[in-house]
Amino acid sequence: MKIIYDENGDARMDTALTAIALFLAAMMVISFTSNPVTTGTKEGDRAPNIVGKAYNGSGWQDFDLQSYYDYEWSMGNNETKDSQWVMIEFMDTDCPYCFNSAREYQEGSNYFTTENPTWNGPHVNFIASATELTGLTGHDSSREEIMAFRDKTTGEMCNASNVDCSTRDGEAYAIPFIDDLDRTHMDKWGIGGTPTYFLIQPDGMIAWASPEHQDEKFYEAINRLVPQDGA
Question: With a threshold of 0.85, does the pTM exceed it?
């Protein structure tokens, strides 16, 4: 039996093996030299995703926080024109401080938008994640209570079940309120109390976290960190 030796086939095999070796070597270099993105709730972390149902004024709709992100975004890359930032508040409709600061958050959602000629920066999407704090008197919430808090309608009791939700300061919101009554998102984000705020860049990275800046208001953080035309 005569064995036929294919020199060309052998050469092709050597080339393929060399290409694979170079590819693996390149991947190892990238893995050792690149900085992995950490998912967490500290400034500089990638914000944990939130998926669930949110009330937008007309009904409960699917919500996905990552749908707001543009992973190609970078600071200085036309950020004042096309990018959209996110400000999220973790709150409880029976939290007295959340009740008293509702006007402040509602007015911020109306101000930091490209529809406001006074604001020279990109659109900031305001979001609220409504939870039910446990172990506290009067903190028995519901979707109906979340809707009443957002829309300023009567018939539900807020602020530790002491007053009608319609009596809170400010106007009705025009932002989504996420249902987190089972504390899934609050626990995932490690929220210790309400209200807690996070400012998220268009690429999903946390630019500002209120637990790290106890003396700075959320609107002060936006003015300081979000690029504006001429700034």
Answer: no
